[in-house]
Design brief:
Length: 715
Amino acid sequence: MHMTRTLPLAASLALLLSSTARADEGMWLPTQLPSLAEPLREAGFRGDPAALADVTQAPLSAVVKVGGGTGSFVSGDGLLVTNHHVAYGVIQYNIKAGANLIDDGFVAQARGEELPANPDFRVLVTTAFDKVTDQVLADAKGKTGRAYYDAVDAASKRLVAACEAAGNVRCSVATMDYGADFYRVTQLELRDIRLVYAPPRAIGNYGDEIDNFMWPRHAGDFTFLRAYVGKDGKPADYSADNVPYQPPAFLKMAVEGPKEGDFAMLAGYPGITYRNRTAAEFEAQVGHVLPARVAVFDALIAQIEAAGKANAEARTRYASQLQSLKNNRKRAAGELEGLQRSDAARLRATDEAGMLAATRGAQKQQIDQLQQLLAQGQALGDRDLLLGLVAGQTQLLRSALTLERLRLESAKPDAQRETGYQQRDQALIEGQLKQVQRRYDAATEKALLTVLLGRYQQLPEAQRVPAFDAAFGRTPAELAKALDALYGATTLGTESERLSRFAAARQGQPLADDALIALAAKLVPAQLELENARKTREGDLLRLRPAYMQALAAWRAKQGRASYPDANSTLRVSFGRVTPLAPRDAVAYAPLTTVAGIVEKNTGTVPFDAPRPLLEAIAKGDFGSTADPVLKTQTVDFLTNLDTTGGNSGSPVLNAKGELMGLNFDSNWEAVSASWWYDPRYKRAIHVDARYIRWLLAKVYPAPALLREMGVPAQ
């Protein structure tokens, strides 16, 4: 049954914003911000809220998607700043004998010394954000399941193809409120990105996993990159002849720093939030999904760490992957603890029960169908997690699977190919294949697969896939034998072997024989069967969830509560204030940390091994214009109550005048669960103070040219 749409959900919600919005909660679409003028002014914003509605105008046009996070331009010559951990793969990519840029840091003394990023690293500049709901859903009406999914997918691909026809842009179609509305996002795709400045690990990642998601914090989590284009001003692959990109706008770095109560605003590309999911999904997250993730991540981390202890080269090659796994593991554990602390599953169930009691007719029937469909998907969750990680956490096996899938897709007309395997995606695939040997070790990859496939072997029969059973056996001994045979015979560890097969795959031609290629030829059809079932389910979810969202919006409106779409990697804005934290009885934290905390934590041993130049500069006490006028010393990090989640890493934090006063890089432990549940008692975001960045560039690891370029004092 196809639901009848009246007033679009986003439009109906906008009517509520000005009277019910809270300054601390909300990942708002830029187009919603003019309706939030009163809360913005009450929070302390001095600018024009209407100016924030246009993503192509300053200041939001200076905010860009960088790799898996966010960044912002800070000069007219393409200089941009993001987190050290967002650029970690770029830094790792440039490690070579005698130059460990992770441990030692990097400063380009001239533009000619700037180092190229890994080939698949991208910076995306949003140039348009257009509502396309009617176009996307035109052919989907009256359809269900896979047919509904395919209609939405085909319409989205047509819109993307038309958008990208002129070249040099990356387009996508994003859904708001789970199928209620759709928007086409146009982004300039910058491909030549270079490393300009990275602090040493013991600054950029001071405290590592011990301090991760913790407050107080003392990390200088920042890195400077520069975007380049061809001499014609258009995006281009790396070339020594390229010139710095001229962004549409750039942020001015603030000279004055934050203090408690000050207005703060953050813009960025948060990944995914789940606050509008059903009560059953909340319950599953707490009862099973998160504990399962923690257990799997623990096992993968242990394998990589063990490999690194025995093999220094493996330790370097898996440094970025290990960092990501540790972060994901801690996030999952913190999310579980936070949801339990906030009693989120029970509260969401109570809220939903009230909503359902007020829902009638066709809308209630659709919600009932939705609940049944979600239960079916949850029953396969363990399998989907493990098989997803089999591809996502490997290099050679992922390469083989990608090549075989590309071969199959390339035999189709481009418009009919799966997203991720169209002609527009081939440069990214090639870039991923080129860097494999810098991130791969055979023994480590086999160990990771042993963890994942060993757990898969223990799944109940209903979650098993015959092709995977045939390939890897049903017992640990059979698995070990299969992996030894595969990795002993494959040649995909050599770049030329991968790229020669890539050349054939992109033409839809047969691939040269190889043990992993032969395996992929057996596994990819099984993956396609699983994908078909998933798309059938997702088609009905896209069709049915809007009914749930309409009922939820109406229920919250009756209670005087504002709503906003869950995050989906599109540009969002949150605003609030610099705020202290009192997470537990008799425990209270100030909102700013200083360099005194670096010295207090320093043990000389990883991860609290502050570099000697930093300790000497702290002891000297020469903080100049970057010293806090009240604290009389150098600040490091600060807290706000801004609403953030994964993907907001590197997001600029702006003051009341729209100046860059910090970079978002983390959340506190008590707020990791905010992707599902916002609890104002605990939700805080952690940012590196721009004054600390300026001081490091001026006094510790000098880069006076960068300070001049950004137009800030060098003292």
